[in-house]
Amino acid sequence: MPSPASVSGRWSSAASRSSRRGPRITVRLAWALSVLALPAQAENWTITPSIAVGETLTNNLYLTSTNRTSDLVTSITPGISIDGRGGRTSLRLGYSITQNIYARESSENNRQQGLVAVGTLEAVEDWLFVDASATISQQYISAFGGVAPSNANIDRNRTETFYYSVSPYIRGRLLSSADYLLRYSVSGTNPDSQVVSNTTTSQWLGRLNGDTRWSALSWSVDASSNSANYDVGRDRNDTRYGLTLAYRFNPELQVSAIVGREKTNLVSREDETNNDSGFGLLWTPSPRTKLDGRVTRRFFGDGYNVAFSHRMPLSALNYPGLAPEAIRAQVNQIVQGRGVPADGSVVNGYLTNRPSLQTQQQISYALLGVRNTLTFNASESQQQPLGVISGLTDDYSLANEVTQRGYGVIWGHQLTGLSSLSLSL
Questions:
Q1: Phi and psi for 69 in degrees, rounded to 5?
Q2: Which of 311, 359, 361, 321 is nearest to 341 (CA)?
Q3: Residue 245: pLDDT above 80?
Q4: What are phi and psi of 197, to 5 degrees?
Q5: What pLDDT does 1 receive?
Q6: Cα separation of 406 and 386, whole Å?
Q7: CA distance 339 to 81
Q8: Which of 236, 272, 299, 349 is 20 to 30 A from residue 328's alpha carbon, by CA?
Q9: Cα dihedral sign for 322, 160, 49, 27?
Q10: How far apart are CA 43 and CA 37, in angstroms?
Q11: What region, left, alpha or beta, does residue 233 occupy, with left being phi > 0 and alpha being psi -120 to 50 degrees?
């Protein structure tokens, strides 16, 4: 159900800013730093402290449909970023803590904390690597609860969530025409809520791809094994292997055919085995334009992924958010510097106690000026549960399908080199 409307304006003055909530992260932050300790031998370190002061004026602090409460919220956010780089290691870490001070509802004063950390290590030169990451962020508990336009709003539907991931892998060249990759990943999601289960997932992934005597034809063989372990409820497993043949007609156009076989207990308590097949299309007419699509028939039906991006001199269009890395980094740097969220998300995800099948569409359009940025975003998400659970309830206990729709408009203005003004609707 959509949340009541709320209009808010925000001004910030900082080199960087981040806002999160949750006072109990000391242990989690220490754990995250230990996960990222492997690449800590970087040769060059850059440590940048920052402080942001933001003012948020809202006409609906508690997101209620009646008896709305207006308030002015002052947000003070000290933070620190660490950037370490060496010949075979790197570490990027950003941590912030926000103190929200309410002019009228002072009993709601709170602290919100955030962490984004990413580390890499090349343990054996050009062969063995380790990736690690950790985040602390606010996640929504239920799609049927309120959705806040700002972290300054009082929202009982959010909980602090700690996420970590560690992934060692090897890669190399086999003979003279094939590349191989073998990766193991383990990750955990730990929400600070009694109504959502902790989840630990692990994955083995192997891939072998190469060329043929015909230069336009290439192939790849891949196999994966996934396991999801819940503190409450049964564990889920999925194993798949497949073959992909790709043919490039010219430098701009490539098509592919996919066949595979999958064994899973995501839907039922017993393992089920199914064949799958599909096709793909990749079209890159220019460095600024990209279309990537794939359709695969799986055990749940047809799965598809279509993404399109196009960058113009003063604007950018994305559906549902794909862009070449260089262009995406350039656009993100511009919009974040003007107080506009880089992801442009207007439909928020939520925590669940079981796997789900998701259909998601998102389109964004950004107009980029010298000092002004205007972004338009629209999203739709449909999710259905895979299997049943016991011990805890979630949104799927109320409805077999959850549909979320949303749109948003954000205007950002660069006041000075260290300050920006943004307005969102």
A1: -115, 125
A2: 321
A3: yes
A4: -80, 145
A5: 37
A6: 25
A7: 18
A8: 349
A9: negative
A10: 14
A11: left
Compare 64 and 343 and report the one with higher pLDDT.
Answer: 64
Q: How many residues does the chain have?
A: 425
**Per-residue pLDDT, 186:** 96
> By CB neighbour count within 10 A (0-12 exposed, 13-18 middle, 19+ buried), where does 419 fall?
middle
Q: Which two tokens stand for residue 311?
A: 């960058």
Residue the block writes with tokens 């959509």: 2
Q: Are 251 and 240 in contact (CB under 8 A)?
A: no
Exposed / middle / buried, residue 61 (Cβ in 10 Å: 0-12, 13-18, 19+): buried
Comparing C-alpha atoms, which of 127, 129, 114, 164 is closest to residue 39? 129
DSSP assignment of 233-269 equals S--EEEEEEEEEEEEEEETTEEEEEEEEEEEE-SSSS
Place of tokens 């998701």: 358
Q: 262 has which bridge partners? A: 240, 274
Which residues share a beta bridge with 246? 218, 256
Rounded Cα distance between 382 and 405, Å, is 9
Give me the pLDDT at residue 166, please.
96
Residue 132 pairs in a beta bridge with 119, 166
Q: Are 110 and 81 in contact (CB under 8 A)?
A: no
> What CA–CA distance (Å, rounded) separates 150 from 137?
14
Instruction: Output phi, psi for 175, to 5 deg.
Output: 55, -130
What are the tens digits of pLDDT across the range 284-324?
999 889 999 999 998 888 888 888 888 888 777 877 644 44
Cis peptide before 320 (omega within 30 of 0): yes
User: Which SS3 state, helix, strand or coil, does residue 319 take?
Assistant: strand
CB-count burial class (<10 Å; 0-12, 13-18, 19+) for 98? buried
Q: Which residues pair with 111 in a beta bridge?
A: 99
Work out the burial of residue 154: count CB atoms within 10 Å of its CB; fewer than 13 is exposed, 13-18 middle, 19 or more buried.
Answer: buried
Copy the structure tokens of residue 28.
């989690």
Amino acid at 86: G
Residue with tokens 């359709």: 295
The Cα–Cα gap between 197 and 216 comes to 48
